[in-house]
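wait is this the right file?? whatever heres the structure
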């Protein structure tokens, strides 16, 4: 796999955590760099346990993977400590000295601000913390004694791993439609969420990346306010089995059918070289837990091939259930169907 960027395509919650955890195990990923902040939650189901990770890279499931938090990331120290206890990966974690710090007061500012309330933010304080970083008055990881044991030159580590042809994942958070630049402004998050931005947060130049894996869910969901083309009602979503609640905040997610035009646009902006489609089992129940493409009903195969036609990008990975290993991996035969 070389160096792979994992980017979300829609409004987040595409299942990036699951895809990262699968790849970590399957490709024995050496280094995984998490970007973004505590507003994102990546769900990993592995060996019967469910983890909702806001800070620890989802690749933690592969026990030899070095776990890094990049320079562009924004750290909630209490959340990080609690996830470290839960996952038991303290000895594998490295935190960039330049990652910024999000504090309790940022969350209060987020929750009490009328404008931010209207946008329906997660209330975790990321917007106010990033404002401070842009004002150049934020605390950085190097300023906190609690983080001292973890401080590392993550940029050097990840680039050295790439020099050595190791397997590296740059783990993006959220999705392109929540990008501050390319998303549905002002109903977006406080950073760019594109593949390029993920590289930038990790300190990896664009020429050093081997693949950009765009994660798209088989239907679309979003939390918070803002546009959602072809949105269906809550009742309809329950009926179709699409109804979800947010991993991080527990809020109800709104939903809509897969949007091929949007997929084309986001594949382009991300420079996607591969696509992962998650939750195909929700659309086509017959394929639940399948690991073999031939097990997909023909409608399911048509759906995948329509995504490839719309985007011009091969769908190499298909999620067929919540477990890290509920995957159809077509990479060895990765040609457009
Ligand atoms: P903020 O990032 O908390 O400021 O929230 C801004 C918008 O992005 C809101 O609509 C949030 O619901 C959304 N958002 C932020 N992070 C995530 C995420 O990880 N998944 C889904 N939506 C998110
Ligand atoms: Mg999420």
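ok assuming it is, sequence goes like this
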């Amino acid at each position: 796999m070389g160096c792979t960027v994992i980017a979300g395509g829609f409004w987040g919650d595409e299942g990036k955590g699951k895809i990262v955890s699968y790849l970590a195990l399957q490709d024995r990923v050496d280094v995984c760099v998490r970007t973004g902040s505590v507003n994102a939650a990546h769900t990993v189901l592995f060996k019967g346990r469910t983890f909702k990770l806001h800070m620890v890279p989802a690749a933690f499931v592969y026990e030899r993977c070095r776990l890094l938090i990049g320079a562009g990331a924004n750290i909630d120290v209490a959340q990080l400590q609690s996830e470290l206890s839960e996952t038991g990966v303290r000895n594998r974690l490295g935190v960039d000295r330049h990652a910024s710090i999000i504090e309790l007061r940022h969350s209060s500012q987020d929750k009490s601000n009328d404008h931010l309330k209207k946008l329906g933010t997660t209330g975790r304080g990321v917007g106010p913390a990033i404002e401070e970083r842009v004002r150049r008055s934020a605390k950085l990881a190097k300023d906190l004694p609690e983080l001292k044991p973890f401080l590392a030159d993550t940029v050097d580590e990840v680039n050295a791993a790439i020099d050595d042809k190791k397997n590296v994942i740059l783990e993006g958070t959220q999705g392109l439609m929540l990008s501050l630049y390319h998303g549905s402004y002002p109903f977006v998050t406080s950073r760019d969420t594109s593949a390029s931005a993920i590289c930038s947060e990790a300190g990896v130049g664009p020429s050093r990346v081997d693949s950009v894996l765009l994660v798209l869910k088989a239907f679309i969901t979003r939390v918070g306010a803002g546009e959602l083309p072809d949105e269906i009602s809550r009742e309809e979503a329950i009926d179709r089995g699409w109804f979800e609640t947010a991993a991080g905040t527990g809020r109800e997610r709104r939903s809509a059918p897969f949007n091929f035009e949007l997929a084309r646009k986001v594949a382009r902006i991300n420079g996607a070289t591969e696509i992962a489609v998650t939750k195909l089992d929700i659309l086509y129940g017959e394929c639940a837990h399948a690991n073999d493409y031939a097990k997909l009903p023909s409608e399911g195969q048509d759906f995948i091939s329509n995504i490839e036609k719309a985007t011009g990008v091969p769908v190499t990975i298909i999620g067929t259930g919540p477990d890290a290993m509920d995957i159809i991996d077509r990479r060895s035969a990765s040609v457009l169907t």
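Residues 3-97+146-333 form a domain with the Adenylosuccinate Synthetase; Chain A, domain 1 fold (CATH 3.40.440.10). so i think its the right one actually
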